[in-house]
Write a structure and sequence with these properties.
Blueprint (H helix, E strand, L loop, with lengths): L1 H10 L10 H10 L5 E4 L8 H10 L4 E5 L4 H9 L4 E4 L4 H16 L6 E4 L6 H9 L4 E4 L2 H10 L4 E5 L7 H9 L9 E5 L10 H4 L1 E6 L4 H25 L11 H16 L5 E9 L6 H15 L5 E4 L4 E6 L4 H16 L13 E9 L6 H14 L19 H4 L1 H13 L2 E10 L6 E10 L5 E2 L1 H10 L3 H18 L7 E6 L2 H4 L3 H13 L6 E6 H6 L1 H14 L2 E7 L5 H8 L3 E4 L11 H16 L3 E4 L6 H8 L4 E2 L13 H7 L1
Helix pairs in contact: 2-3, 5-10, 12-13, 18-20
Length: 661
């Protein structure tokens, strides 16, 4: 557990050492100093622990105690052992990292924080001298106006107020200063030679942290001032954190998340920015506590949702995330990574965590979304429709015998029916570039559905409903038909494009598709070599008989074949041999981090070698930066595709075509 936590904290930017016995820790402390100690509660009973505690308490080193139980007895035991913080296992590494940063920052803050001393009667000169001689930064004023002006330009760490002043009194002065927003949260100490009890009634209203009787020893005054400032700094840090973060998971608090989502919806509705809302439902087949489930999903979301995205827990097993991307390839890659990471059952803060099955849905924030409730409802419905565990969207919602498709999803039923009838779709294209200088213009085709106002609806939003309601085959035929029209329109170009088109599993198992395609090719006089149809590796493996039949027919027509989302597994090599693909598109996960990950480099080399052995050309998908190109090239990749080159656009539209030529 210690090694695991140390490694995790290094990823958060901390320097760590871990020890399996207190003797080793004592040897380390004899020659070095720890900024903080994270210790398991079972170690507190070791007879050598008091020596460790005394050394760390003397240097004000935070001691964070981990324990299985959250009972008051266990908490009191930790306090008796010098514990400054208590962590019940399992806990969020993000919360621990924040706690460490705040502790280390607060412990160093008082030395550089100024005390504002307000001495309206001139009786605190000696106190000011004592603090300055001890090295405490201090700014002294002699009237209320000067105090207010200082607060407007600076934020002191503490107010020291003359309690014996009569005009104004200390209570009147503090009440007036508290009316200025800049004075919120600043602790105040009153110094007096009189009866301290006269300030009791004012303590709450005026924000008095304490009353110190004069005269006071220099050491005592410095200790009181330092303790108050450290506590105030710690509380302010906690307030800032808790205003935006959940203290258990480290994710955004639900209130903060909903406010951010409200702003994202409003901005997207105006067309200024397009974001995606992701909804995740987690379930485990094993007995697991709600806390463990929540922390496990939170950890995975924190790891995979790219900044400046925001995640929140909505309930014990429901989560949401705002992702500032509209690229369906990126979104599908994030979904696959989330599902794979949750299923991997990685230890959680030293405790075993069972695999978690995730159902993930997404909805694009745009003009069709009117409110936060609308966005959450559509994303939640999308999660119920699709599990997100396969490379393609897999149907999971099951209707009862008397439920019609329209009754299950009337809004999408009506929208899709009218879109198909009116042809309210459009195509965009992303180039596939050759790393070997081949001149062929390759493009992958992506479909967008248009709403009534001609705004785009992205595939991850409407395709799950299209599959569920039986529109997949209709959309495939519209896409193929429109792609052939584009090829027909581009005959005049010196370099005619080759279009890669995805096919739904429903189309793969439909025998009439080939006859329809043959008729279209004949009537439109389109060169079939300009069409490459894409099947996912998983879909082809699951529908092997239908896939082989379709591919034979497509080859007879002269069309090409690409296998996409391809990774090495037990089925991969025989699958390539059985299907005779022209291209192999690597899974997007293989392009990420390939420069640093030797295992990924070896897997890509294996795939490219296997592809060439079967006469197929390898393509790397989701290439996002130039740094990955050298590793992909060295691994044998011939083509690349991704936002590094260009996002999907209508390159064959009138304006875009003029720009490209």
């Amino acid at each position: 557990m210690a090694a695991n936590l140390a490694g995790e904290l290094r990823l958060h930017g901390f320097r760590t050492r871990h020890f399996t016995s207190l003797d080793l820790l004592i040897n380390f402390l004899a020659t070095g100093q720890a900024a903080a100690l994270l210790i398991d509660a079972t170690t507190l009973d070791d007879p050598t622990y008091p020596a460790v505690r005394d050394r760390l308490v003397a240097t004000r080193t935070p001691i964070m105690v981990m324990d299985e139980s959250d009972s008051m007895d266990h908490r009191l035991r930790a306090v008796s052992a010098g514990g400054t913080d208590f962590l019940q296992r399992p806990f969020s590494l993000a919360v621990l990292a924040h706690l460490l940063r705040s502790r280390l920052t607060v412990s160093s803050r008082p030395e550089g924080t100024t005390v504002l001393l307000i001495d309206t009667s001139g009786t605190l000169v000696q106190c000011a001298a004592m603090l300055q001689e001890a090295g405490q930064a201090l700014h002294a004023v002699t009237d209320a106006d000067a105090a207010l002006q200082y607060l407007k330009s600076q934020r002191p760490g503490l107010l020291l107020v003359d309690g014996d002043s009569t005009h104004p009194t200390a209570g009147e002065l503090l009440l007036a200063l508290r009316q200025y927003p800049g004075a919120y949260g600043i602790p105040a100490l009153v110094l007096t030679r009189g009866d301290k009890r006269r300030f009791d009634d004012l303590a709450s209203a005026a924000g008095i942290e304490g009353v110190v009787g004069l005269p006071v020893a220099s050491r005592d005054l410095l200790g009181i001032v330092g303790a108050r400032m450290r506590r105030a700094a710690s509380l302010q840090e906690s307030w800032r954190y808790l205003a935006r973060r959940d203290p258990v998971t480290g994710l955004a608090s639900e209130g903060h998340f909903r406010e951010e989502l409200r702003q994202a919806v409003a901005i997207a509705r105006e067309g200024a920015q397009r974001a995606t809302l992701l909804h995740l439902e987690g379930h485990s087949g094993q007995e697991v506590s709600n806390r463990t489930m929540t922390l496990a999903v939170a950890r995975v979301l924190q790891r995979h949702i790219p900044p400046p995205g925001l995640c929140a827990a909505l309930s014990e097993n429901a989560f949401a995330a705002i992702i500032y991307s509209r690229d369906e390839t990126t979104l599908e890659s994030i979904k696959r990574e989330l599902v794979a990471d949750l299923a991997a059952a990685r230890p959680l803060a030293g405790r075993p965590c069972p695999p978690i099955d995730a159902r993930i849905g997404t909805t694009l924030l745009g003009q069709g979304i009117g409110s936060v409730a609308d966005a959450l409802s559509r994303a939640r419905e999308s999660a119920r429709i699709a599990t997100g565990t396969a490379d393609e969207v897999v149907q999971t919602a099951r209707a009862s015998a008397d439920d019609s498709p329209a009754a299950l999803d009337p809004a999408w039923q009506a929208e899709l029916t009218s879109a198909v009838a009116e042809g309210r779709f459009r195509l965009v294209y992303q180039p596939i570039a050759s790393l070997t200088g081949q001149p062929t213009a390759l493009y992958e085709v992506f479909v967008r559905m248009l709403d009534a106002e001609q705004n785009d609806i992205l595939p991850q939003e409407f395709l799950p409903a299209a599959k569920r309601l039986g529109f997949a085959r209709h959309i495939d035929r519209w896409v193929v038909g429109r792609a052939m029209e584009v090829l027909q329109e581009q005959r005049h170009r010196r370099e005619q494009p080759v279009l890669f088109i995805k096919l739904f599993p429903e189309t793969v198992e439909t025998p009439s598709f080939v006859a329809w395609l043959a008729d279209r090719l004949r009537r439109m006089d389109v060169d079939p070599k300009r069409l490459v149809f894409q099947l996912t590796q998983r879909s082809a493996a699951r529908q092997l008989t239908e896939a082989r039949s379709l591919i034979r027919s497509l080859r007879e027509l002269g069309c090409g074949l690409a296998l996409e989302h391809y990774r090495m597994d037990g089925e991969s090599e025989p699958l390539l041999g059985k299907l005779e693909a022209d291209y192999v598109k690597l899974s997007a996960e293989l392009s990420r981090g390939i420069m640093q990950d030797r295992a990924l480099q070896q897997e890509v080399q294996s795939i490219t070698g296997e592809a060439r052995a079967h006469g197929a050309r390898p393509i790397a998908a989701l290439v996002q930066d130039a740094a990955s190109l050298s590793s992909l090239w060295a691994a044998g990749v011939e083509y690349i595709q991704g936002y590094f080159m260009q996002e999907p656009v209508d390159v064959f539209g009138a304006e875009e075509l003029q720009e490209h030529e």
